[in-house]
Amino acid sequence: MADEDVELPAPKRAKGSVVRLVAWLVAVLLVVGAGLYFWWQQVPSEDDLREQAGLKGKAQLFVGVADDNPGVALKDPKTGSYTGFDIDIAYLIAADLGFRPNEVRFLTIENEDRNRMRAADEQGHFLTVDLVISTYSITEERERERSVSFSAPYLDTEQSVMTLKGVPAVQDMSDLAGKTVCTITTSTSRNPASDAGAKVVGKRRISECLPGLRNHEFDAVTTDAAILAGYVALEPEVFQHHDIGLAVPEEWGVNTGGNDNLTKLVNLSLYRSHNDPEDKRWEDAYDRNLRAEERASFPQPVANDKQPDVDEVEVRQWPWERLAGTIRPIGATDRRRRRTASSGR
């Protein structure tokens, strides 16, 4: 009788090893999946941030701005409309927050009210604004106030000096020792002038310094270069801009009044504007409002014509949104904005 081929059963040990391996892989995937789900739930989406910031259901976005700074924020007394760099930045941010231009309501805010987030309407009623975008320099002292929470900087400028045309060049703040210098009462721009020995006079607005400068009551006016450049550009035959060489930058930020979720949304808007090569809204705002003033202010720079760096804001996204470039990573996400005490306006 011929031998028949007999199929031998697979070793039980091998089958057991495969089963254990599969079980281990399933367990690992479950743990990883649970971790990813937990992370997914912890990181807010952009829509979550809008709801937590109190923007859902809002018919209008109230923005406090200046109204007397040519090139930065100027109100037309006839039409009531506002124009300038700060105004364009407000529209940029508002659009990313989900508001159309006609849903943005600008209210004139005084310098002393920027930390209080309150501005008066046309009838003189005080209203609480959602954002303050009003040449508000970021300083450590201001950031310690409970009602102040700054965004990342949206403009870098510096302190400068304006005089009547034809006076000797002011190359250093010490050149104003013994002279009368006008600035804003609540501004820390007064500190360098006072420390240099100038007689400092405070006003509520920089525009209120101009009559005294014209009639020689004041020898000079000092505040941020991006503000003074507007007045010089309007009347280059009357005013002269001086570069005093202060090394400390003036970084303007948006105050959200302690609304941390709104701060994240503002920073997200600024981050995308900075890192999206197709987004030219910031560059257009600079060219339209500030670059045109550079010639009249030369050799004093008006501001840095590059948008300041902004740290990435972590929001929950689908992978294809990131790959599509909704958020473009920058070279170093650990950059931190400068938080030095400055001579801010």
What does this structure look like?
With 345 residues, the protein is of the alpha/beta class. It has helices at residues 12-42, 46-52, 85-97, 140-143, 190-195, 210-214, 225-234, 260-275, 281-289, 294-297, 319-323; strands at residues 61-65, 68-69, 73-75, 82-83, 104-108, 118-120, 126-128, 131-132, 155-164, 180-184, 199-203, 220-224, 239-242, 249-252. It is built from 11 helices and 14 strands. The strands form 4 sheets. Strands 9, 10, 11, 12, 13 and 14 form a 6-stranded mixed beta sheet that branches. Strands 5-1-8 form a 3-stranded parallel beta sheet, covered by helices on one side. Strands 2-3-4 form a 3-stranded antiparallel beta sheet. Strand 10, helix 5 (190-195) and strand 11 (199-203) form a beta-alpha-beta unit. The longest helix has 31 residues, at 12-42. The radius of gyration is 28 Å and the shape is elongated.
Radius of gyration: 28 Å
SSE order: HHEEEEHEEEEHEEHEHEHEEHHHH
**The CATH topology of the largest domain:** D-Maltodextrin-Binding Protein, domain 2
Overall pLDDT confidence = 86
CATH superfamily of the largest domain: Periplasmic binding protein-like II
Classification by helices and strands: alpha/beta
**Number of strand elements:** 14
Characterize the main sheet.
6 strands, mixed
Number of domains: 2
Number of helices: 11
Distance between the termini: 109 Å
Poorly predicted regions are 323-344
- Sheet-strand content, in percent, reads 15-25%
Note the overall shape. Answer: elongated
Architecture per CATH nomenclature, i.e. the level-2 architecture of the largest domain: 3-Layer(aba) Sandwich
CATH class descriptor name of the largest domain: Alpha Beta
Estimate the helix proportion, in percent.
Answer: 25-40%
